[in-house]
Amino acid sequence: MRYRGLLKLAVFGAIAGTPIAATAQTTAFDNWTPVTDEMLANPADGDWLMWRRNYGNWGYSPLDQVNADNVDDLNLAWAVTLDPASNEMTPLVHDGVMFMVQGCDFTQAVDATNGALLWEYRRDVVDHAAGLACGNRNPVLYGDKLYIATHDAFLIALDVRTGEVVWEQQVGDWTIGHHYSGGPQIFGGKLIAGMSGCYYINSRCWISAHDTETGEELWRTYTIPGPGEFGDETWNGVPLEARYGGSAWNAGAYAPELGLIYYGVAVPIPWGSPQRGTGDGDVLYTNSTIAIDEDTGEIVWYFQHMANEYWDLDHPFARMVVDTAVAPTAGEVQWIADDLTPGETRTVVTGIPGKTGIVWTLDAATGDFLWATPTNYQNAMVDVEPENRRGISNPELMVPIGVETFVCPSAGGGINWQSPAYSPQTNAIYAPVNNVCNFYTLNEVTPTIGAHHGSARTRAVIWEGANGNVGAFTAVSVETGEFLWQHIQRAGFGSSVLTTGGGLVVTGDDANLLRVYRATDGEILWEQRVSASLRGYPMTYEVDGTQYIAFPVGGNGRYRARTPEIRFPSGGNMLYVFALPEG
User: Fold this and answer.
1) Would 296 be classed as within a structural domain?
2) pLDDT above 50 for 27
3) At 333, is the secondary structure helix, strand, or coil?
4) 73, 442, 443, 546: which has the highest count of C-beta atoms within 10 A?
5) Are strands 524-529 and 2-4 parallel, antiparallel or unpaired?
6) Quick one: 529 exposed, middle or buried, by C-beta within 10 A (0-12, 13-18, 19+)?
7) Number of H helices, E strands in the chain
8) How many CA atoms, within 13 angstroms, populate the side-chain half-sphere of residue 537?
9) 169-176 — which CB contacts under 8 Å span 24+ positions?
10) Could you tell me the strand order of the sheet in which 97-101 lies?
């Protein structure tokens, strides 16, 4: 492994409103072809058209020009300075053009070979009630349009060649907190997006489908049931106007052969049942996976990973759709369905959907529970009731308002919105998890806009069994649930993961280190210290026979407060793009 010091970069800046020569745009878009449903279903090896590259949210590219034998030769190809806003972006690439939707929806198109600016679109920033509204994670490409879900609760379509607005459609009301953070997807020819921001402000959040040519709403599915709907009784009589939470704040997954769209739903608000007045009710569909009919928006099945949850342990993160043999290993996997026939090949919804850091595997067609096992220490969930389609929250931690208890993981999560990745080469999930707990006390609350973070007082600590180490980068077999390898370290992992056909796993940590691991055994093959911790989504693409690996970085590191000796300046938002030397 070759270690490299902090890069000295010549970067390409971008100034809002700078005119771009038409000849540069024409050259860049000479090879552009409209993105079709077939391209989304079977993307070209060199493209990255949606959030995690495919419908199943794998975060995997088959590109293999960069591999375990030559990755140590990676050099900086180009870099650009990014906006200083929250940097959680996923760059997209098609036909040699890269699209970057940065914080507060600031969007740029650049030449993917050198970063030269082609156009930019800067949306007016509103004085938002929700403090996290500007964390835009992904756009999606379709036809000749780039689709964005905005911090002020609009869906917009931009012309890919010019950045001009083709249409915009208001979906929520930003003045009461609605916003998008998980971006849109194109499933079955429809634009699909999940609304966030239901923090003491309105009755329910939702997932909606829209016409790609006009933005017209086609169907809307609420994430919290109303009177007379299935699950209404789980709120124990709390009136609809007081049922808060249930944000869908990451993008969904899709199984076209089943006609199902999969979304994760976040926590109820306020966080504790004594504050909500819901007693022992499960409060559906919070902390659940829901499977939605792509044509009607009907909820076909659900599974609630934590019923009646108290501790802000959200479950809206990336779901993965994978075809695999299912044979969990007894003694290695904590919970296994009693009626499971080991070795059957199934289409499953798998991954780490929530902050608990537990890998869950469900049948994609039915939602039936198959198996689940933790990747970091947790004490918040104690059992699974497959027949009732729910995980059982720890009753010993359900304490009254004002009483302190010890909950693992912390409200920051063993994992948060950063996404694991899947590799079909190893049939494994690669998960950036952390061993952090907190002392947790529910507060008296008065529902007001944006006050959800006042639900509790928390004091985070490293789990004592981790010996002072926060990070635990873990490879888990999707077939057996066994750990293939685990990399333990002092610094936390706050970044998402990329896997490649070259047998590589790419991620970064709170010590500002970008790393490439060998997928089979976890050996570190290459690392590079950069200007900030990696908070966005690494990706890879190919143009004119050259494979590039791109890392968006920026932010202060979610778990860095637990490692005060790891000190770096704040800011430093950049996109770094690496490639092998020519020749």
Assistant:
1) yes
2) yes
3) strand
4) 442
5) parallel
6) middle
7) 3, 42
8) 32
9) 169/210, 169/214, 169/215, 169/216, 169/217, 171/195, 171/208, 171/210, 171/217, 172/197, 173/202, 174/126, 174/128, 174/129, 174/133, 175/129, 176/129, 176/201, 176/202, 176/449
10) 92-94, 97-101, 107-111, 117-121
Tokens of 227: 């009177």
Which amino acid does the sequence have at 205? Answer: C
Alpha helices in 18-120 (DSSP H): 22-28, 37-41
Environment class of 10 (CB within 10 Å of its CB; exposed 0-12, middle 13-18, buried 19+):
exposed
Structure tokens, 570: 């704040």
391 DSSP β-pair partners: 384
> How far apart, in whole angstroms, are the C-alpha atoms of residue 288 and residue 302?
7
How far is Cα 516 from Cα 502, in angstroms, rounded to an integer? 11
Beta strand extents in 17-164 (DSSP E only): 60-61, 75-81, 92-94, 97-101, 107-111, 117-121, 140-142, 145-149, 154-159
197, exposed or middle or buried, with CB in 10 Å at 0-12, 13-18, 19+?
Answer: buried
Region of poorest pLDDT, from 160-174, 378-392, 432-446, 551-565: 551-565
Instruction: Determine, yes or no, domain membership for 499.
Output: yes
pLDDT at 445: 83
Instruction: Report the share of the chain in percent with pLDDT over 90.
Output: 81
Amino acid 25: pLDDT: 64
Q: What is the bridge-based pairing of β-strands 436-442 and 404-407?
A: antiparallel
Ordered DSSP codes for 92-115: EEETTEEEEE-GGG-EEEEETTT-
Question: Is 123 a member of any domain?
Answer: no
**Cα–Cα nearest to 505, from 485, 490, 494, 520:** 520
Residues 6+ apart with CB under 8 A from 50: 40, 92, 138, 140, 141, 185, 186
Dist. CA 107–CA 122, nearest whole Å: 6
Condensed to tens digits (0 to 9), the pLDDT of residues 186-225 reads: 999 999 999 998 876 666 899 999 999 999 999 999 999 9
Structure tokens at 325: 């043999």
Rounded CA Rg of the chain: 22
pTM strictly above 0.85 = yes
* Range scoring the smallest mean pLDDT among 52-56, 198-202, 337-341, 344-348: 198-202
Q: Are 533 and 557 in contact (CB under 8 A)?
A: yes
pLDDT in tens, 436-467: 999 999 999 876 555 566 789 999 999 999 99
Say if CB 554 and CB 135 are below 8 A apart: no
Q: Which long-range contacts (CB under 8 A, 24 or more apart) does 240-243 make?
A: 240/203, 240/204, 241/203, 242/203, 242/277, 242/447, 243/203, 243/204, 243/268, 243/283
Residue 418 is part of a domain; what is its CATH number?
A: 2.140.10.10
Does residue 461 lie within any of the structural domains?
Answer: yes
Encoded tokens for 187 = 């499933």
Six-digit token pair at 106?
Answer: 């600031």
Please give, one letter per residue, the 3-state secondary structure of 229-249. CCCHHHHCCCCHHHCEECCCC
pLDDT value at residue 554: 87
**Strand duo 117-121 + 140-142: pairing:** unpaired
In the chain, how many domains are there? 1
- Beta strand 335-336 with 299-304: parallel, antiparallel or unpaired? unpaired
